[in-house]
Amino acid sequence: MKFTLSWLKEHLDTSASLDEILERLTLVGLEVEGVEDKAKALAPFVVGEVLSAEKHPNADKLRVCMVTTGGAPVQVVCGAPNARAGLKTVFAAPGTVIPATGTELKIGKIRDVESRGMLCSAREMGLSEEHDGILELPADAPVGAPFADVLGLNDPVIEIAVTPNRADCLGVWGVARDLAAAGLGTLKTADVAPVTGHFDAPIKVQLAFGDTPALCPLFALRVVRGVKNGPSPEWLQAKLRAIGLRPINALVDITNFMTFDRNRPLHVFDARKVQGDLVVRRGEAGETLLALDGRTYALDDSMCVIADAKGVESIAGIMGGEESGCDADTVDVVIESALWDPINIAQSGRRLGLNSDARFRFERGIDPAFALPGLDLATRMVLDLCGGEASHMVVAGAVPDTSRTID
Fold first, then answer.
1. What is the C-alpha to C-alpha distance for residues 167 and 174, in angstroms, rounded to an integer?
2. Tens digit of pLDDT for each residue in 65-116?
3. Which CATH superfamily is domain 46-150 in?
4. How many angstroms separate the CA atoms of 374 and 368, rounded?
5. How far apart are alpha carbons 309 and 19 in whole angstroms?
6. For the chain, which residues make up each domain, given as ranges?
7. CB 81: neighbour CB atoms within 10 A?
8. Whose C-alpha in 16, 102, 117, 266 is 20 to 30 A from the C-alpha of 69?
């Protein structure tokens, strides 16, 4: 389980130092496996502005760029197709070690033209696999500023080991709650305001488990229509990148954020790709699903699935299907929040050889009381980041009563 220090402090009001937090985490049984301070590793990289980008005299696909980091311009030969005048990007001076390769930059000649540095891609920086071009920074990024500061990478990333009996700490809020209970600060209010629905959802849901209702005691959804599914805001992308996740689009990023922030796995369907109502049931022999990981899985009646009129759309509690996934053209979306039997999820995942962040949490057990507030919180994020209008909530089943009386 990974999170940044600033992310933790969004839920925990504390003046404790990083070292004090690390010590207390271990004392409460959340062993610290490591702390990554990217700002130190990225210290040599600064914001550079491309002043000019001219065609290389001896190579059609190369450009000769003049770059400033606040002092005298330097010449850099670059092969990125997006290198252009006015671009703010990442500059590495000679002597800098490139994270992805471990090589030290030297002054050299590329096709007989001297190059005194490097303009870097995300892959070269070790940030992602993106290497179609050099990094493009915001236009207002200060020239010469540390790159880590501009992209919010000056935030230590903490990794803890969470034992199977501590599923409550598979979200940042749960970790903050544990630290507050241990006397290291105060837990910030986590009340979720209900979202007001403005129309009846055009998609309903039925639980069809016969005499085994415990496989899915609760399934709730909302439809949000009129969304714009573009890139998520930089603050959200930065959080996901910091813990090793690749930002996809706003809708998917919201569900990933909910998984790691509040330990509430959710799934989003493109509502226009769903035919008819949803039925939550056992799978059937011969059914298959092309999942979001690009693999096709053979299903059987030991597994729970979410299906519509045309067939299975999701392997319940584990992974959604490619055909009903959200993309840049998504306008109407179904957000679902459910409770699943932990043992069944674990068995289904092993049988399929399929791991996911959702499975990891559901098979350990999550807070049933947060299923409906979690749906409201995710809906609010969709409305804030993607716009649109939300339906009334559709609920099948009920939240199990997990309260206990201690004499």
1. 9
2. 999 999 999 999 999 999 999 999 999 999 999 988 999 999 999 999 999 9
3. Nucleic acid-binding proteins (2.40.50.140)
4. 10
5. 55
6. 2-37+156-187, 46-150, 205-397
7. 11
8. 102
